[in-house]
Amino acid sequence: MFRTRRAILAWTAGLIWASLTAGGFASLWRYEYTPGQQQKLGSAWPAGTSIPLESQRFTLVVFMHPQCPCSDATVDELTRLMTICQGKLIAHALFIRPGGFASGWEKTTLWRDAARIPGVFAACDPNGVEAKRFGAFTSGQTALYDPAGHLLFQGGITESRGHGGDNAGADAIVNLVLHHNTAATATTRPGETAVFGCSLFDQPTPSKSRSPNQ
């Protein structure tokens, strides 16, 4: 009888553990594959922006939150994009600095990694002014424009939160930059993918923020 009861208890405990584990994996999967907020961008380069539009090359604009761990994968994909599209693409990585944070708060490891990529210009976006102008709400949101200022692509360049590798967004950008038909721009709908990342406008408390020296 004692052995039977012990076996039942062990079986029950195992079943509970398996259920909790499965639930944890399901929650993690939902989190990783749930896209962030995104809105349709206008078809032309935004008026009033301080970001320069390249006249001879394509311009890529990427918005990131300097504290977003998911955006490490975006920087990895940006490295791959700039290598493949070398000489044909210039990228601007804009890092949000919310109001109330000192200058330099945004210069985390994520900033430094992006700034090291040839052809990428990292810059601060105080209060998310440029992000709002471009309609960006999620870290990792990317927009590609041709030299005439036509929007060719908007969305993310990772397959899920924090995971790099082959994905539809990065592949679309490579194809557009290397094989774009300028004459067809006016009649072609911009490509779009989901964005996986943290909110650009969440304001972490200073005590929980990464130091610029981390």
- N-to-C SSE series? HEHEHEHEEHE
What is the tally of helical segments? 5
First-last Cα distance: 59 Å
Largest sheet: 6 strands, mixed
What share of the residues lie within helices?
Answer: 25-40%
Radius of gyration: 21 Å
Task: Please specify the SSE layout and strand pairing.
Blueprint: H1 2-32, E1 58-64, H2 71-84, E2 89-97, H3 109-115, E3 120-126, H4 129-134, E4 141-145, E5 151-155, H5 168-179, E6 191-192
Parallel strand pairs: 1-2, 2-3, 5-6
Antiparallel strand pairs: 1-4, 4-5
Index terms:
214 residues, alpha/beta, 6-stranded mixed β-sheet, 6 strands, disordered C terminus
Describe, in plain words, how this protein is organized in 3D.
33% of the residues lie in helices and 16% in strands. It contains five helices and six strands, in the order αβαβαβαββαβ. The chain has a six-stranded mixed sheet with strand order 3-2-1-4-5-6. Strand 2, helix 3 (109-115) and strand 3 form a beta-alpha-beta unit. The longest helix has 31 residues, at 2-32. The model is unreliable at 17-33 and 204-214 (pLDDT under 50).
Task: Write a brief structural summary.
This protein has 214 residues and is α/β, with parallel strands linked by helices. The protein has helices at 2-32, 71-84, 109-115, 129-134, 168-179; strands at 58-64, 89-97, 120-126, 141-145, 151-155, 191-192. The chain is globular, with a radius of gyration of 21 Å.
